């Protein structure tokens, strides 16, 4: 197996978007990242182009670009809000996204505009079911 | 995109799936784009040895007492300058000089007054190339063309360790020199062993019966070659500036614009020669150039190239170079901005990335 390969997982407690993103909600603030499935489909991430701190991200719209050697993909925001922090470590070492997609590979932190938007997101179990239907 | 049911599979399909390759549609075939990862496979080919399944490539046989004459008429290069047992790169052009394909032709020893050649063509053009060969062969007594694609699988073993790896597996033949080939037994199977490739590394390409492909593949992987997919094949060829048909070459471009004059024998007549001679003499308004990013970003095909804020061309290939660790690519630019060292910018999805026109190859093989 590739040295970057980590076992497939979808942790409980995170909320999932069908574009293969996750959000971790804490006190009106959310951390965004991409799921194991997304990083596995993409292959080794070689570049992460984050938004600026203070900019607005909108649910279901692209907020960043992520590139493998072969292709570029949009990263979709699961929720709307204002960017409060970006993960500088991931900009410098994009393979963190492959190595630890739910931990060190987080992408941005966002102050949520409308916490009720979370109702449209999936639980870990529902996301896993969604993935199975895709196959 | 064609559905999976319409896609052709090489005799190694099951072996790729077992090796956990990611299979993708490519030129009508279901092919491995990567196994462990593009970068790892790329580095394996640059530092050790990698093995590629390129059985999707097409093969056209030309034989008969006038086969040489026919190929000299059809191809830009002069196959007569190559001795029997030799291989030569050439372009296949339309009358207007537009490129139909780029290809390698292998010249067999003459037997009983019959000349025989095998031309290996791109998978995406295999059917149209053969139709072109057939159409051109009408009215040529003494040159018969046959589509031999179903009869051959093709493996490419490439890398600094490729030669020491293949040599013990050659049973009744000697290792051919660069751009030569030999016919004999490799790991128990009859094969054409060709000292050619598409990576910039030393190595061989093996043309063999589809029935033998898996046993030879297994022998080579057991001997230490790492499976490498089309992803690495693309990054490897781009680092050494080999053009890819459909990206860097098309019917809208001529070999002269593409910097392939070295593969055009302009002293003989062939389909498209008139235009190419004219362009070689007068120059072309655009030229294909390689470039290196001087900062961040990754170019992709279709990006606009600028100089001093003005558009001067378009990229035709782009990637992150695994060896150089910067964005690299090729593109057609105005001839007056094609000089090596020219500062350019590439518009990558709205961001202007700094780059410089560079010399070929972008990556220099160790020891060269």
Itemize the secondary structure elements and their pairings.
The complex is a heterodimer of chains A (135) and B (368).
Chain A: E1 15-17, E2 21-26, E3 29-34, H1 36-42, E4 45-49, E5 56-57, E6 62-68, E7 72-76, E8 81-86, H2 88-92, H3 96-99, E9 108-112, H4 124-134
Antiparallel strand pairs in A: 1-2, 2-3, 3-9, 4-6, 5-8, 6-7, 8-9
Chain B: H1 13-18, E1 22-26, E2 29-34, H2 38-47, E3 50-53, E4 58-64, H3 67-74, E5 87-93, E6 99-107, E7 115-121, H4 126-137, E8 144-147, E9 153-158, H5 162-166, E10 181-186, E11 189-194, E12 203-208, H6 213-222, E13 226-227, H7 230-239, H8 273-282, E14 286-293, E15 304-307, E16 310-320, E17 327-334, E18 343-348, E19 351-357
Helix pairs in contact in B: 2-7
Summary keywords:
heterodimer; A: 135 residues; alpha+beta; OB fold (Dihydrolipoamide Acetyltransferase, E2P); 6-stranded antiparallel sheet; 3-stranded antiparallel sheet; 4 helices; 9 strands; 33% strand; B: 368 residues; Gyrase A, domain 2; Alpha-Beta Plaits; Elongation Factor Tu (Ef-tu), domain 3; 3 domains; 6-stranded mixed sheet; 6-stranded antiparallel beta barrel; 8 helices; 19 strands; 32% strand
Structural summary, described in words:
- The complex is a heterodimer of chains A (135) and B (368).
- Chain A is of the alpha+beta class and 135 residues long.
- Chain A has a single domain (15-130), classed as RNA polymerase II/Efflux pump adaptor protein, barrel-sandwich hybrid domain (OB fold (Dihydrolipoamide Acetyltransferase, E2P)).
- Chain A has helices at residues 36-42, 88-92, 96-99, 124-134; strands at residues 15-17, 21-26, 29-34, 45-49, 56-57, 62-68, 72-76, 81-86, 108-112.
- The longest helix of chain A has 11 residues, at 124-134.
- The two termini of chain A are 22 Å apart.
- The mean pLDDT of chain A is 94.
- With 368 residues, chain B is α+β, with helices and mostly antiparallel strands.
- In chain B, the strands form four sheets. In chain B, strands 10-11-12-9-3-13 form a six-stranded mixed β-sheet. Chain B has a six-stranded antiparallel barrel with strand order 14-17-16-15-18-19.
- Chain B is globular.
- The mean pLDDT of chain B is 96.
């Amino acid at each position: 197996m590739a040295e970057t390969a980590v076992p497939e997982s979808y942790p409980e407690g995170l909320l999932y978007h069908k574009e293969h993103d996750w959000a971790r909600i804490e006190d009106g603030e959310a951390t965004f990242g991409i799921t194991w499935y997304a990083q596995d489909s993409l292959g080794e991430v070689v570049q992460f182009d984050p938004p600026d701190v203070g900019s607005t991200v909108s649910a279901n719209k692209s907020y960043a670009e992520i590139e493998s050697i072969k292709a570029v993909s949009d990263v979709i925001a699961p929720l709307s809000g204002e960017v409060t922090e970006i993960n500088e470590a991931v900009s410098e070492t994009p393979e963190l996204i492959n190595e630890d997609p739910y931990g060190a590979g987080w992408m941005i932190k966002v102050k949520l505009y409308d916490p009720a938007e979370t109702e449209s997101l999936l639980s870990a179990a529902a996301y896993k079911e969604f993935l199975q239907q895709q196959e | 995109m064609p559905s999976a049911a319409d896609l052709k599979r090489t005799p190694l399909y099951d072996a790729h799936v077992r090796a956990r390759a990611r299979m993708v549609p490519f030129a009508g075939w279901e092919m491995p784009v990567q196994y462990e990862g593009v970068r790892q496979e790329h580095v394996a080919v640059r530092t050790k040895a990698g093995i590629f399944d390129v059985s999707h490539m097409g093969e056209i046989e030309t034989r008969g007492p006038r086969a040489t004459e026919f190929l000299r008429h059809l191809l830009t290069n002069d196959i007569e300058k190559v001795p029997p047992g030799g291989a030569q790169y050439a372009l296949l052009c339309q009358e207007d000089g537009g490129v139909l394909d780029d290809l390698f032709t292998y010249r067999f020893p003459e037997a009983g007054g019959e000349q025989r050649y095998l031309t290996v063509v791109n998978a995406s053009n295999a059917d149209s190339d053969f139709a072109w060969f057939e159409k051109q062969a009408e009215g040529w007594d003494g040159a018969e063309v046959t589509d031999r694609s179903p009869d051959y699988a093709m493996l490419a073993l490439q890398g600094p360790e490729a030669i020491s790896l293949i040599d013990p597996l050659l049973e009744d033949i000697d290792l051919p020199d660069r751009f030569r080939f030999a016919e004999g037994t490799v790991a128990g199977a009859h094969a054409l062993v060709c000292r050619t490739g598409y990576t910039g590394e030393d190595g061989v390409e093996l043309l063999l019966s589809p029935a033998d492909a898996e046993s030879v593949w297994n022998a080579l992987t057991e001997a230490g070659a790492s499976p490498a997919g089309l992803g690495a094949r693309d990054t490897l060829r781009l680092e050494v500036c080999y053009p890819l048909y459909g990206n860097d070459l098309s019917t809208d471009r001529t070999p002269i614009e593409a910097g392939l004059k070295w593969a055009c024998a302009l002293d003989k007549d062939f389909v498209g020669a008139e235009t190419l001679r004219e362009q070689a003499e007068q120059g072309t308004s655009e030229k294909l150039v390689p470039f290196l990013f001087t900062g961040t970003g990754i170019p992709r095909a279709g990006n606009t190239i600028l100089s001093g804020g003005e558009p001067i061309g378009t990229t035709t290939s782009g990637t992150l170079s695994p060896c150089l660790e910067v964005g690299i690519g090729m593109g057609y630019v105005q001839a007056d901005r094609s000089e090596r060292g020219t500062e350019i910018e590439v518009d990558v999805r709205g961001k202007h990335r700094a780059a410089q026109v560079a010399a070929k190859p972008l990556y220099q093989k160790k020891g060269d």
